[in-house]
Amino acid sequence: MARSLGAPAPAGSAAAATRTRRLPPLLVLLAAAAAGPGAGGAARLYRAGEDAVWVLDSGSVRGATANSSAAWLVQFYSSWCGHCIGYAPTWRALAGDVRDWSAAIRVAALDCGEEENYEVCRAYDIHFYPTFRYFKAFTKDFTTGENFKGPDRELQTVRRTMVDFLQNHTGGGRPPACPPLDPIPPSDVLSLVDTHGGRYVAVLFESHGSYVGREVILDLLPYENIVVKRVLNAEKGFLEKLGVSSLPSCYLIYPNGTRGLINVGKPLRSFFSSYLKSLPDVRKKLLLLPEKPNKEENPEVVVWREFDRAKLYTADLESGLHHLLRVELAAHKSLAGAELRTLKDFVTVLARLFPGRAPVRKLLETLQEWLASLPLDRIPYNAVLDLVNNKMRISGIFLTNHVTWVGCQGSRPELRGYTCSLWRLFHTLTVEAGARPEALDGTGLEDDPQAVLQTIRRYVRTFFGCKACSEHFEAVAEESMGTVKTTDRAILWLWETHNLVNSRLAGHPSEDPKFPKVPWPTPDLCPACYEEIKGVHSWNEGQVLLFLKQHYSGDNLVDTYAADLGDTSEGRGPHQGGEQEKGLASPGKPQRDQRSESLRPPSVLPPRPRLSDGSQLGLDGRLRSARGAEGRREAEVAVPFLGMGFSGLDMSLCVVLYVASSLFLMVMYFFFRVRSKRWKVRHHRPSV
């Protein structure tokens, strides 16, 4: 699969297994918590010391942009975003092109795909990638910056917007190293002859709307013994007097007072800047710029995991769920309206159709029932995170907090990974919906062959971080998803769309050279899927459908390299130790567990039964006992006794109910008190 929603086909690959820290605890579910930055790491697409891009991380972004003597243009990107990978050469070229501007404005990047940067990206309210933000100089209070506004993101467009941004700095807020960019009146040109101060003065005559003069001023910013000015809309007679016949032109006043029009090959910014930098005695200043925000750390150790391309790996699906629930959705501080409905429907589809291990399914079911039972029309996403992180200490639920790519490995850390796992998850959901249509009974999504596809479509449109990728997916869905009339057709529609995206991105920088974007399944995986009609390749869609149903079924899911579940019977969250990489799945362990009954909301779960009568917990987190499946189901939904399983939300609701009941009792007390006094007055008889 690919790095964007158009990533490489679901072939396996190798990638660095990024070890992740657990998200910090959140004590109050109904309040958005401000998370502190974690330790910084080197961005993957940009290398400090190699690129002109300033590489920021969670530990340096606030210090760099707050109260800085220079302005900043920061790209918040994700190393898994295919569009970000494709845009990286442009961003590097931009940083190199304006390298001489760094005393006034700096081009930086922060990788929101790095685990340690998740929280700081949330703090900056980054929802989609790439996001571009300007930060003014001398900003003392925390700010999320100003969004880049431009017709496109081509190098020249962004560079010109940087010029506008600098020019809009007012008064004391302007970077001190940045010279005035506003034009001078034509009448001041001749007076510069007497006030040149023994240095070169270059005057650029240009038309209104031209950026050449301002860009040359910034290009010469780190050079001494020269000053650059610009003049707009000079009268024709005045220009003729100076010998200026076309715009833009450069009129140069020498240190000895002589002056004249300079002749460059072409009236372009680069020609003017190069000529002026080459003048005698024009040399670079010794600028004391701060050190780059972070230095390149030791390169990440890439662990290659051998895998079978014909298999589907639990580790890929669970790692994808971890990123989806804890990172991508967590970029939204609160959810309401259409966003909340999309989340509820998507979690419902996951809870009913996800074919993975029982503790993960149980977590999804718990989340789904909790969301369905909420009477609120807006929720903070921190509340969802607390449930995903098992702050309620519900027994038997689990989701890894480690990223371990197996079939979704890439030859470099930024390739494949999350979007590959997302494609595999989507394919799996469509296949499961066709195999078990009864699973969606009672959800409002039953009896609709497009239900799963439309839910995926809304999720991608609303939450998927790569904005360009989601727009491409939406365009394809709008054109052809309406033709889907059966669940089989839904499976094939997603397959066709995936191959269409792969074809579009073949040769794109996000393509993994070790796993090229080719039509999938490949002939070695499904020979029967290929046929020729009059010498032209054609798909045998009947065989493709059979292959997809087998490949993405729960029976083809293996637990090799999957995270150790630990002891889920004690209501713990994700296992705190390192990932356990096993060469083989446990012998005799079934690849697909029988599904348990639906869970009740966490607040009404029964107390945990005692592990007696020979009951014991297996390594996969399921209870083994003589009572069989029924006992196993009861144990899997168990919760610690005497209130240890209450969440922050439960406690908040208890406080609200307590306050409400207290107010009600006070009102009733005063009501009956007043009524009693009235009764006494009415029935009082004075003594004779």
Automatic annotation (TrEMBL):
Biased composition (Basic and acidic residues): 569-582
Pfam families xrefs: Evr1_Alr, FAD_SOX, QSOX_Trx1, Thioredoxin
Keyword annotations of the record: Disulfide bond, FAD, Flavoprotein, Glycoprotein, Membrane, Oxidoreductase, Signal, Transmembrane, Transmembrane helix
Sequence intervals crossing the membrane: 655-672
GO function terms (MF aspect): flavin-dependent sulfhydryl oxidase activity; protein disulfide isomerase activity
GO biological process assignments: protein folding
Protein function: Catalyzes the oxidation of sulfhydryl groups in peptide and protein thiols to disulfides with the reduction of oxygen to hydrogen peroxide.
Protein name stated in the entry: Sulfhydryl oxidase
Gene that produces this protein: LOC111145752
